[in-house]
TrEMBL record:
Pathway: Protein modification; protein ubiquitination
Domain (SOCS box): residue spans on this chain: 67-114
Keyword field: Growth regulation, SH2 domain, Signal transduction inhibitor, Ubl conjugation pathway
Protein name: SOCS3 protein
Keyword rRNA-binding: no
A molecular-function term among this protein's GO annotations: 1-phosphatidylinositol-3-kinase regulator activity
Biological process terms in GO annotation: intracellular signal transduction; negative regulation of signal transduction; phosphatidylinositol phosphate biosynthetic process; protein ubiquitination
Residue ranges of the TM segments: none
Gene3D superfamilies associated with the record: SH2 domain (3.30.505.10), SOCS box (1.10.750.20)
PANTHER family named in the record: PHOSPHATIDYLINOSITOL 3-KINASE REGULATORY SUBUNIT, SUPPRESSOR OF CYTOKINE SIGNALING 3
């Protein structure tokens, strides 16, 4: 997903002559590319209709259908991890580290995961 000038789109082939749909919200982009829900066909009891709307991704010379079927599951970092990461990212010198209050130094020393 690309974000340019406050609008979102899927990355496209620069050689493509067709414009890429752009959205002001990521959720609108995802909704646009999600497969439509099946709807009942009145002439056929129990039948369903899947409108033919397919998008493709191009990888080299291969044409791959784009299917968004479920959200990507991910875990949220703990607040402790985010705080340590932020503080460590702003400590670019040993001198700044020595100026921290003792409780914060201890808090950072307890951190055993790499940043």
């Amino acid at each position: 997903i690309q974000c340019e000038g406050g609008s979102f789109s899927l990355q496209s082939d620069p050689r493509s002559s067709q414009p890429v749909p752009r959205f002001d919200c990521v959720l609108k982009l995802v909704h646009h590319y999600m497969p439509p829900a099946p709807c009942a066909v009145p002439e056929q009891p129990g039948g369903t209709l899947h409108p033919k709307r397919t998008y493709y991704i191009y990888s080299g010379s291969e044409k791959i259908p784009l299917v968004l079927s479920r959200p990507l599951s991910s875990s949220v970092s703990t607040l402790q991890h985010l705080c340590r990461k932020t503080v460590n990212g702003h400590l670019d010198s040993y001198e700044k580290m020595t100026q921290l209050p003792a409780p914060i130094k201890e808090f950072l020393d307890q951190y055993d995961a790499p940043l």
